[in-house]
Amino acid sequence: MTATLLQGDTLASEIKTGLKKEIEQLKAKGSPPHLVAVQVGENPASRVYVRQQQKSCEEIGIEYELKELPDSTTQDELLDFIETLNQDGAVTGIILMMPLPQDIDARQVQIKISPDKDVEGMHPANMGRLVYGEMGLTPCTARAAVELLKASGVELKGKEVVIVGHSEIVGKPLALMLLASQMESPTLAVCHIATKDLSFHTKRADILFVAVGKPGLIQADMVKDGVIVIDVGINRVSVTDENGNPVLNEKGKPKKKTVGDVDFEGIKDKASFITPVPGGVGPMTTTMLLYNTVESAKKGAARR
To answer: At 187, which helix (H) or strand (E)?
Structure first.
């Protein structure tokens, strides 16, 4: 058995094609999607993400704007600024760039964002809607993982699903999404750092999600034949030669590669479906941000 790859790039392209049509319709109605990113202070890593966001938005016709605030911005000032964006009818989506300065409570700022403009799906109101089975504005990475699973065509009813990782942005909302249907939901187990025997649970999984950030956490002997694996992890590790020595790049520095949380080479011959890293959940996460931005614009149009 060789696993079928669940390619995020391919699925993302299909979804973007549909989003382009919806954006054209929104523009024709006078309700164009307009995403505003808010960044406080300088952060090189955040700036790279901003460029990726802008490029993705421009690709399908979403207006993208970066609002940069100085390092000296206080929490109250940031909260007031967010409120001005909430009240601005031309702004349909807001994303808060991380990290924020240490003296600012990121959770309090996130809560300040209007639930209808919360394109990251992290507002308590949007999280709460998941409890009721409403798939509205949902956390992007968790939604990306669900959409990739749907692409496999598997029926969830009766399946044993194991999620490794219980973060607020992936594990917890992912569990709620999978339990959204009263009659078609799988049987679910969520494992985490306090789980005593991880392998006991992963070996039972028909479908395995892993979102921990630890390369090589799941090995081939920890899964059963035919498992579907959705690897959410993105890790940068050193490339080594056959003797375990680091391989150097042209600048004499250790060469790096991107890997997930599972042993892809070992598991791909046991799994029925598996996501590659890179090229799996990553591209779909960005696309789900675009999807949420369009959904928030549709909410705005409905209120007019």
So the answer is: strand 187-191
Which amino acid does the sequence have at 92? T
Tens of pLDDT, residues 21-80: 999 999 999 999 999 999 999 887 788 888 999 999 999 999 999 999 999 999 999 999
Contacts of 86 (CB under 8 A, 6+ apart): 94, 112, 113, 114, 117
Tell me how far apart the alpha carbons of residues 168 and 163 are, in angstroms, rounded to a whole number: 13
This prediction has a pTM of 0.94
- H-state helical runs in 198-239: 198-202
Phi, psi (5° rounding) for residue 213? 90, 35
260/280 Cα distance (integer angstroms): 10
10-residue stretch averages of pLDDT, the chain, 304 residues long: 92 97 96 96 83 94 96 96 97 95 94 97 95 94 97 95 97 96 93 97 98 97 98 93 86 90 97 97 96 94 70
Rg (CA), the chain: 20
217-221 long-range contacts, CB within 8 A, separation 24+: 217/164, 217/261, 217/262, 218/164, 218/261, 218/262, 218/263, 218/267, 219/262, 219/263, 219/266, 219/267, 220/263, 220/266, 220/267, 220/269, 220/270
Q: Which residues contact 92 (CB under 8 A, 6 or more apart)?
A: 31, 32, 33, 34, 35, 117, 293, 296, 297, 299, 300
Distance CA 163, CA 175 (A): 8
Among 96, 99, 94, 126, CA closest to 109 = 96
Residues 6+ apart with CB under 8 A from 180: 130, 133, 134, 135
**Rounded-to-integer distance, Cα 301 and Cα 227, Å:** 42
Q: Residue 39's beta-bridge partner residues?
A: 68
Q: Residue 167: how many CB atoms within 10 A of its CB?
A: 17
